[in-house]
Amino acid sequence: MQKVKVDYSKYLKETFRVMKESGLLLTSVNKEGKINVMTIGWGTIGIIWGMPMFLVLVRPSRFTYSFIEETGDFTVNVPSERLREAVSFCGSVSGRDYDKFKEKNLTPLPGKGVKSPMIAECIFHYECKVLHRNDIIPARVPENVSGEFYPQGDYHRIFFGRIISTFSDNKVKIE
Ligand SMILES: Cc1cc2nc3c(=O)[nH]c(=O)nc-3n(C[C@H](O)[C@H](O)[C@H](O)COP(=O)(O)O)c2cc1C
To answer: Is pLDDT of 109 > 90?
Structure first.
């Protein structure tokens, strides 16, 4: 499917719906050129310093974490309903143990403005360059939130990804 450039705000509603219901696919690459994909359920899109930004939260324990640190970019890909099983797989096993692209027949498409690839089978794609990072401060997190989401520590790092381009399938079909 051919990809066309669209405004970053064109599919916000759909992006948030899929992020909440099943998860989005974040890709990254390390300095040796190895690619990886993980599922994310937390993140937000907004304007910071006058630029469109995708903020994603990644725990230090994720293989992805060091990839983003090494190359400073990532893509966020919105899967269609058909990829639900792949999304669940990419959110439950690590790239340390599996080549998730191969296992789930996901096709990496070279990024246009970033080193991280897009995923051909997804329907929208955000290419993001890390402009800033910030760690969750344990002492500032309400106790009940810490208890529920951080029983082992592993507090997220928030990567501020400047959205440099957004693409969609030529013929998007919202399922
Ligand atoms: C629906 C769903 C949402 C997830 N959201 C996040 C997230 O926002 N941040 C995060 O660090 N891990 C999240 N995870 C967990 C990672 O996707 C999972 O640990 C994955 O195996 C990490 O892959 P990696 O080690 O190859 O980077 C989520 C998992 C699922 C199933």
So the answer is: yes
